[in-house]
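User: My advisor, Dr. K., asked me to get a structural model of this assembly before our group meeting. I'm new to this, so sorry if the format is off. These are the inputs:
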Amino acid sequence: MAGHDVEAVRKDFPILTRTLAGDRPLVYLDSANTSQKPRQVVEAMERHYLEHNANVARAMHQLGAEASAAFEAGRDKVAQFIGAPRRDEVVFTKNASEALNLVARVLGDDGRVSAGDEVVVTTMEHHSNLVPWQLLTQRTGADLRWFDVTDEGRLDLDSHTLTERTKVVAVTWVSNMLGTINPVEEIVRRAHEVGALVVVDASQAVPQFPVDVAALGADFVAFTGHKMVGPTGIGVLWGRYDLLAELPPFLGGGEMIETVSMDSTTFAAPPHRFEAGTPPIAQSVGLGAAVDYLSRIGMDQVAAHEQRITAYALDVLRELPGVSIVGPKEPVDRGGAISFTVDGVHPHDVAQLLDSQGVAVRAGHHCAKPLHARFGVQSTTRASFYLYTTEAEIDALGAAIRHTQSYFGAR
Amino acid sequence: MNAANVDAMYQEIILDHYKNPHGAGLREPFEAEVHHVNPTCGDEITLRVHLDGGRVADVSYAAEGCSISQASASVMNELLVGKSVEEGLQTLTVFQELMQGRGQVEPDEDVLEDGIAFAGVAQFPARVKCALLAWMAWKDAVAQASAEEDS
Ligand SMILES: Cc1ncc(COP(=O)(O)O)c(C=O)c1O
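Assistant: The format is fine. Below is the predicted structure of the whole assembly, which you can bring to the meeting.
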């Protein structure tokens, strides 16, 4: 198999050739926050708006038919990309957060979680896969429980025992802070043993490695378009069709109905039942182009590159005195996000100094405050990588950290 | 403005206050205690105000955050302790105008003393909140403490 040609890939991302203030070339190490977009995605959306734009489903004219076909083609591509057994298992939302809120809301409305039941999450969750479950358990009187994290940054599956009271287990596949890849198959096995449903937050997984939802065996999988070289404004909820078909709607409005009278309404079949109002049409076109782009490169190649570059970055960061990695330090079951602290320099100051060197990273709690508390830190600096990240960029990160240390007199 | 010019932000004065903060720590007595958080970055401050007949007798605090938010708490302590509440609130207004002036406001050294060092921070919109965190906490605490004194 031919190797991953990073330089060729970078040509598709014009933004990566930008220079920033002080004539510094951009070193973009914030892809776990949002990825950059290749020309192919932007051009597909531009073409759609300039040549095929109309509303979907409700427009009878030729443009309406073209727009509907383009929108639904995006769904086909996503379904194929994640190995969904049926295309109508793919529900479009506005992002992963909305997808997770959707599941939490309708499971409660359907009475599948009620007083005395248990919903189980982990301390590793992004707030998007924690707060909706807090809201659900508060609303229903159910209990929220969680799996803890070991000092090394791995899930401790012995820290909580699932029982027949457990109705839902909601877990992130890849931690956006620690980079840890969780043993989701094992969690699915344990959850299904007690009859619980499994919701997987795959926001950091689908962009990074091949995902086959049928093989995974979970009941719901959520992810977000903008982290996988796609546009903002579109997220995906995949759900088992038999489950989706039993669940009540989330939002009410146009397109989600079968028939409406003044006092009653019957609802469309999935996925439209869960897509009230004008959907993210151009975004579906863009997401379709994004999965075409990733598929052409090959998700195996994307994953292998991510592994290589993460291993290289772990080596560079481990070598730096005064720098501590928070999370797994070996490139094993680990994705391309590395959070770290620099002795004597606050993460915001680190990020600001790195930015002055052209290196874009994220600093803060990365929407994972409980996880930061678990590691006794208020915030961290996070560097994250993707298919366009080079070793030279990691070297630039290392140099910029050393510059930061001498600037603050920390070393 | 040159975003790469971090030297404009990290003035010597700011780094000095960061390394040797004035008036840090929580003290008694106090009439009001508040806890403020910057939700975007997680910076936090617990701040106490002790008023004595319309005068700011003490501002004590425990802050966790970046150099800008820490230094700003330190400078604020220096500026406000000993002033009347009214003067303190005027100083707050002047500092706020400087911070929200996008680098266009000429700082008034007579009023702000070391606080003029924050003029550079005003050019970095993402960091303005860091500089204002302690001040907003003080404003909140002083309102509570004054209500207390009046009642
Ligand atoms: C693990 C994880 N879950 C959920 C989200 C939320 O994604 P979005 O903001 O697109 O809803 C993110 C990204 O911020 C994430 O990293």
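One thing worth pointing out at the meeting: The pocket of pyridoxal-5'-phosphate is lined by residues A 95-97, 126, 128-129, 172, 176, 201, 203-204, 224, 235, 367 (CB under 6 Å).

User: Perfect, thanks a lot.
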